[in-house]
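User: Can you predict the 3D structure for this chain?
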Amino acid sequence: MRAIRAASAALMAVSALVLTAPTATAAPGGGNAPFGFTVTPSTVAAGGRVTLSVTNCGTTATASSGVFDTVNIPSGRSATATVDWDAKAGATYQVTFTCNGQSGTTSLRISGATRNPTPAATVTRTTATVVPGGVRGGLGGSMAGVSTAELVGGTALVVAAATGTIYVVRRRAEDRQH
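Assistant: Here is the predicted structure, written as C-alpha cells:
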C-alpha cells in the first residue's frame, strides 16, 4: 500500500512538471522575432492599401514584400503601402519586417476583387502612436516569448508543489504506522 501511494505521488509530480513545461512561441509566419508586427488588413485587393505596424522596436523598422516597395516604419508609428496593381488575385505574399537586424514574416493575401487604378502608387506615413504592450485580442498571449524570470519562477512553483506533495504523502504514511 505504501508503494502505491509513493508511486502515485511521484506520478503527480511528474505530471505537474510535464503540464507546466513552457512551449515554443513564434511570431506569425514562423519567425522568432523579438518585436511585434502586423499588416492590416491581412487580405486586400490589388491596388489597395495596407497599414504596416511594428511594436517593441526602438529604431526605424522596414517592411518589404514582392507586392509593394520597401517601407520605413518610424519607431512608435505605423506606415501605409499601396499594393501593386499586378498582384495576382488569390495569391499569398510574404511580408518581411526587419528591426535591429532581426526579421519576422507574416502573410498578405490578395483578394479576387480589384480597385480602380490611381495615377501613381504612393507610400505615406501616419502619425498614429502604437501603444506598446497593448492587448492582442485572439492571440492568447502567444506573441511574446517566455523570459528567464518566468521560466525560473514557474519551475520553482512546480518543484515546491512536488516537494510538498511528497512530504505530505510520506508524513501520512509515517503517522499510520504507529
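The first helix runs from residue 2 to 19. Confidence is low (pLDDT under 50) at residues 16-30.
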